[in-house]
Design goal:
This protein has 198 residues and is an all-alpha fold. The protein has 2 domains: 49 residues, Arc Repressor Mutant, subunit A (Orthogonal Bundle), CATH 1.10.10; 129 residues, Orthogonal Bundle (Tetracycline Repressor, domain 2), CATH 1.10.357. Helices cover 68% and strands 0% of the residues. It is globular and about 60 Å long. InterPro entries: Homeodomain-like_sf (IPR009057), HTH_TetR (IPR001647), Tet_transcr_reg_TetR-rel_C_sf (IPR036271), YxaF_TetR_C (IPR054156). This is TetR/AcrR family transcriptional regulator.
């Protein structure tokens, strides 16, 4: 039976969403096509009607994961603590630490993306650049800093977020107190770094 264009698009989106969740949770190489299609509620046989390869899916799932993560940023604008502080609080939370499947693709993929297909690497790089720009837009200007200085600060903040989340996740199973200490220290330090003055 022929599937309508709408249903085909719905099935493709379900595969991308399931792949993004599973790739963030377990890594690109630890998840197979059959598992992804099953998680999407579909059969394995239809996969290649949507994607030429697992690498093609990984690239699209990476892009979609960044769009999902960046899509949360406007919610921070309405926070009384301010957009940047709300973002830092949300990012450096125990909830985010414990839910990599629904979290930031940078923290989930950074350690393995260099070994992936060039299309995945390219989408990852574009997503990272978009995060730098989003954080830079939320930074207040400091006297005499200039655009280059503000961009440098955004890069440092994003890099610390990703590295800090990786360390918090790695230490949580055996030393949960250290994991929480990492998150707490980064929230404080990056809040200062993102503020108006040194």
């Amino acid at each position: 039976m022929k599937v309508s264009k709408e249903k085909a698009a719905e099935n493709r989106a379900a595969i991308v969403k399931a792949a993004g969740r599973l790739f963030r949770e377990r890594g690109f190489d630890k998840v197979g096509v059959a598992e992804i299609t099953k998680a999407a509620g579909l059969t394995h046989g239809g996969f290649y009607g949507h994607f030429a390869s697992k690498d093609a899916l990984a690239a699209e799932a990476c892009e979609a994961a960044f769009a999902e993560s960046l899509g949360r940023l406007p919610d921070d604008e309405a926070s009384p603590e301010g957009a940047l502080d709300a973002f830092l609080t949300r990012y450096l939370s125990e909830r985010h630490r414990d839910r990599p499947d629904a979290g930031c693709p940078m923290a989930a993929f950074a350690g393995e993306v260099a070994r992936q297909d060039p299309a995945v690497q390219k989408r990852f790089g574009i997503g990272v650049e978009r995060f730098f720009e989003a954080v830079e837009e939320r930074l207040p200007e400091r006297g005499g800093e200039g655009d280059a200085g503000r961009r440098d600060r955004a890069i440092a903040i994003v890099s610390a977020l990703v590295g800090g989340m990786a360390l918090a996740r790695a230490t949580a199973p055996t030393d949960p107190d250290l994991s929480v200490e990492i998150l707490t220290a980064l929230r404080g330090q990056l809040g200062v770094m993102g503020g108006d003055e040194d």
